[in-house]
Write a structure and sequence with these properties.
Elements lengths: L3 H19 L4 E7 L4 H17 L4 E7 L4 H7 L6 E6 L4 E4 L5 H7 L5 H10 L7
Parallel strand pairs: 1-2
Antiparallel strand pairs: 1-3, 3-4
């Protein structure tokens, strides 16, 4: 019979190993914008700030203006802008909008464990019992 404590330790070890690897991975990001619209400029500012705070020295950010490179839009199946695509590390992830919700962007980049964000959202507005 399998001891549940052994399973928990193994799962915890795997999770910690995964987190330590994510801190070493190099990120390849591509941001599709539409000229210098407010949404596009805001998205660019937001992703630069997030990258400098969380991925300093470990990312490449390519900015593509859909008006200048229309073939890229078709190839990447871009349906709205601004769109951020995380090419590496896998899995590929697409995020649409001005990227102002930092927590969701971090989750999309796999920089914050999902359960931490969900737990924080659930506990908002509630206080600890006295």
């Amino acid at each position: 019979m399998i001891d549940s404590e052994d399973v928990k330790e193994t799962t915890t070890e795997l999770f910690e190993h995964s987190l330590s690897q994510s801190k070493e991975e190099y990120y390849t990001l591509r941001l599709y914008v539409s000229g210098t619209t407010l949404q596009s400029v805001t998205a660019l500012q937001n992703i630069k700030k997030i990258c400098e705070e969380h991925l300093q020295g470990r990312y490449e950010l390519e900015v593509i203006d859909i008006y200048q490179q229309t073939e890229s839009v078709i190839a990447e199946n871009i349906v709205a802008v601004p769109t951020l695509i995380k090419k590496l590390p896998l899995p590929l992830q697409k995020m649409i909008g001005n990227l102002s919700n930092t927590e969701k962007v971090l989750l999309g980049l796999n920089l914050v464990p999902k359960k931490n964000i969900i737990g924080e959202e659930r506990n908002e507005g509630f206080s600890e019992p006295s």
